[in-house]
Write a structure and sequence with these properties.
- With 316 residues, this protein is mostly helical.
- Helix content is 55%, strand content 4%.
- The protein is built from 14 helices and three strands.
- It has a three-stranded mixed beta sheet with strand order 1-3-2, with helices on both faces.
- It starts with a helix and ends in a 26-residue tail after the last helix.
Amino acid sequence: MSKILAKIILAKVALALLLSSAAMPAVLVADKSPYQKFYRKEYSNQGIPKEEDEIKLGEAMHKVLTKQLRLVTDPVVNAYVTQIGMKLAQQSARPNLRYQFFVVEDQSVNAFATMGGYVYVNSGLLLNITNEAQLAAVMGHEIGHIAARHGLRKAKDSIKWKVIGGIIGAVNPFPGQIQGELTRTAGKLIVNGTVMKHSRDAENEADYLGLTNIYRAGYNTRGMIEMLQTLQELDKGGRNILGDIMRSHPPAKDRVEKVRTEIATTLIGSDQKGTMGKTGAEFVKLRQRANGVVVPEVQKKPASKPKRIGSRRKKP
């Protein structure tokens, strides 16, 4: 075979391979996950305020928030949400933190986390999802923000941490002046949305960590795809029920594609197995309870005594 003929054959083979790869779905030829930059990333409080200070500021923010928000007090709902949250937290990149979960009486489709383990879910979010895996996806995302210290890093950049650090480091119980300053700082962080609104990169990282959380916790990863698709539909429909915090996230369509790619390249088959948790009528009852609609259990009436047939015998 001449050298010229060999070159022609090689060129044809190369062209055929190029055309065949171009026709393949992008997810199969991609050699990188959209979240690859977050792989093997280590999380700690090194270089930022220590964990004890983070927890104290998180407590102060919670006290301010409870004066501004109404929390759902139904013990069944709170126990259920906490159970899911703890299951996810134990599989997170920060399992040893003391997490606390709350349901807020608010019809906007929203959820947020502050710092130090505090996670909040709106009752309106529960009304717009259909199974537990979708709820787990949202909570896993918020736990991801806490694990990555996103809120804490933003707080450090927005306030004079050396001054605040000295206040937080004071011996408990806080003297009135110190507690007042701490409360004012917490209020400022809340009003400005400092620790609840994040960059797109931080939101993508929380999506990755959340997806990992629900996968490790045994949930079907399809729950996250469904949740993001729901947000996409709500936004497309022009329904003004997405909270300001949720609206600051990257477009849901982009997030869906990233999650799909991660599942197809790394968590292969995880959208076909794993639990969806509570679904159907069982989940509807929880949604109703979270929104103040408690359907009473139907009690069976006691069986009535059979009527006596015939005349009674008269006493002599």
